[in-house]
Design a protein that fits this description.
Elements lengths: L1 H24 L2 H7 L1 H5 L7 H7 L6 H18 L3 H13 L3 H14 L4 H13 L3 H13 L2 H9 L5 H7 L3 H24 L16
Amino acid sequence: MPQFKKASFKVIYFYLLCALFLFFAVDRKKVAEHAWPKTLSRLRVEYSYLVNAANGIPPGHLQLIDGKRYFNAIISIYGQRSDAYAFLGMSYYYLGDRKLSRAYFLKLKDKEQGFFWAYYDLAVLAYLDKDYSAAGEYCQTAVQLPAEMSVAYMMGSKVYQPLFVENAFTPQILARNIERAKMLLLQMFIAIKAGNNPAPFIDKIPVSVF
């Protein structure tokens, strides 16, 4: 009987060592990424409401709530993801919560300092809040950022992929959207320097992440 106990202890010890090895050796990030579609399948949302919002069509409240839950779930399951911050910032803006919208766009900017849309959206929010000094600074930074960097970031993001598939977005379309947004920011900057605050065109500028 004592020999049996000793042998059992060795077996248990061996399996514990194996478990520890696997715990540290397996790339848990890759495992999580592989499980992405299955894990979020019940919360999968259509991105069309965000496209409509960016085109000036107010999104439905239920669509925004579903989207908010989906992007929050991504962060809860997969950790801090700047691409999810982008969509949460946009969702909260259209839910009427500018404070949370700004908070997520700031997180996005801090993690992806070369991402155009983070600075664009922060410029729009600052202008709406009549913080013209901050709006001007964000404008100046945004218009100097190369579109290619932001396009590459979006094309490599899992969160953005359903948006591109549903709407047939291409790198060329994304780059064109950024250049158009830069023109709006230049108008905003000129209005700020001229002292025309708030300028009439500001109501026509939606927040966006693409």
